[in-house]
Amino acid sequence: MEQSRTRTPQNGQRARTSAPGPSRAPLGVPAGAAATGESAAVYRAAGRTRRVPPIVLALRRLPSPRLTGLGGGLFAAALMFALGTLDWLLFDGSPAVYGVLFLPVCAVTALWVRPADLVTAPICVPIAFAVGIVPVAGGTGGFGGQAMAVVTALALHAGWLYAGTLVAGVIATVRKVRLMGRRRGPGKAGKAAGPGAKAGGAGKAGGTGVKAGGPGKAGVRR
Known about the structure:
Strand content: under 5%
Order of helices and strands: HHHHHHHHH
Low-confidence stretches: 1-6, 11-22, 202-222
Structural class: mainly alpha
Largest sheet: none
Number of strands: 0
Helix content: over 70%
Mean pLDDT: 72
Shape: elongated
């Protein structure tokens, strides 16, 4: 009878020690302060949303194909040859009109090239400029005369060539920087979450030690 009486409090004490307790706040931080900090963080994250300008929305509605490096070069060359022919028919081969049309072609080519081939955008647009200037050069006297006319036109209107190459290079660089920032974002978030997960695991191990010490206290009382 005495043994059964002494075992009953032990079982009851084990049940009380194994029961899960309420979640505790970190040391030195009140529970209400922790909840208030979490709500404030959520409020700040919600308040950081910014309105997108209408111009950006209009650009997002435009088609956004992804061209390879070769595809982007062929696209730019074919488009500049068509625009050069149109300039020759309508404006009698005006170099200024051809140069103005060359700038948006460079921008579109740099925007439509896929991220893996961004480096090819500033390389293919000068080739497209040389291909499209053939109708505008207006050379005569066979292949030799036509080639000399193209070289002369490239030397005289190199400003448009440099400007278009600069536009394509800037757009490709901005896209590359944004792509690298997106790739680094998840990595930083995972590294920041690592120490918190380890600290939580250590807290759980400490709780297990406290639970294990309960039966020992019961045995001393007996």
